[in-house]
Amino acid sequence: MSYAFTRSLGFFSALKKVILSTKKTNSSLSYRLLLQVSLVPTVWLLRKSSKISSFLNLSICLRISAMDGNSSCALVLCGKSSAENETAKTLKNTGALKLTDNTELSILLHPESEKPIKEDAFGVDSFMNSLSTNRFGRFLLWSPRLPSTHDVVSQNFCELPIGAVCVADVQYKGRGRSKNAWESPKGCLLFSFTLQMEDGRVVPLIQYVVSLAVTEAIKDVCDKNGLPYVDVKIKWPNDLYLNGLKVGGILCTSTFKSKQFNVSAGIGLNVDNEKPTTCLNTFLRELSVTTYQFRREDILASFF
């Protein structure tokens, strides 16, 4: 069997191809597919078409004062279409979204506030303007400070549309595999998203697809901006390394309900934070690149 992916495939298309391949094989597919993917270092994942649709020419303003306290958090909801923005309004009006530790949560719609957003905050408009996808990433939850993006999407899975993504500027309870703590300072791309599938044989493979997707998103940004090759390597199944130092990790969890596997995939990537190890922009500075610095919004849009 061949599992070659092309540049034109986004995350959903790549995953769909894996699922279709699964249906054509016997129960040993998980091992065989994993072996095949591991042996293809030049696999292309998550390359979108060069045409970027424009959207959301908005001026974002938020009640930042409501987000900075230690006892509360805020989520800003945004959709790429009117239907997704209606979903955001419904979630705000019903108060359906919750945090795992019962932290007080306020819901805002994009744009909705009194003060300009901080300069180092995630650029909601920039991300939406760069996003070219039919499903994933089109419904966004953003917060300057959360316990964990993964906990947000996993706890509220049934309330969110499939493909919803949650982004935080800072996490204070970030975690990795085996309940390991994940340091989540400013400058780190921190996001989690939802997906759903029926075939349980595919679920263990998602972390491999996501790991490859992150490295290809970085390559995509490099190509678009004329940057030198940034060789982020994968330590299977879910760690990302640059120059021998860990710069990222992936956490995938799932539950089974109504004959469907509900999967929450969380990613942390050091983009502009030199500590605790190194980051992508430190690598560019070491190469004396001054024309461009990696932006979280660009990488996330390329990921989907």
Automatic annotation (TrEMBL):
InterPro entries: aa-tRNA-synth_II/BPL/LPL, Biotin_CoA_COase_ligase, BPL_LPL_catalytic. Keywords: Ligase. Residues 125-304 form the BPL/LPL catalytic domain. CDD domains: BPL. It holds the Pfam family BPL_LplA_LipB. The keyword Ligase applies. It comes from the Eukaryota. GO terms for molecular function: biotin--[biotin carboxyl-carrier protein] ligase activity. GO terms for cellular component: cytoplasm. SUPFAM superfamilies: Class II aaRS and biotin synthetases (SSF55681). The keyword Ligase applies. PANTHER family: BIOTIN PROTEIN LIGASE (PTHR12835), BIOTIN--PROTEIN LIGASE (PTHR12835:SF5). Belongs to the biotin--protein ligase family. This is Biotin--protein ligase 2. It comes from Prunus yedoensis var. nudiflora.
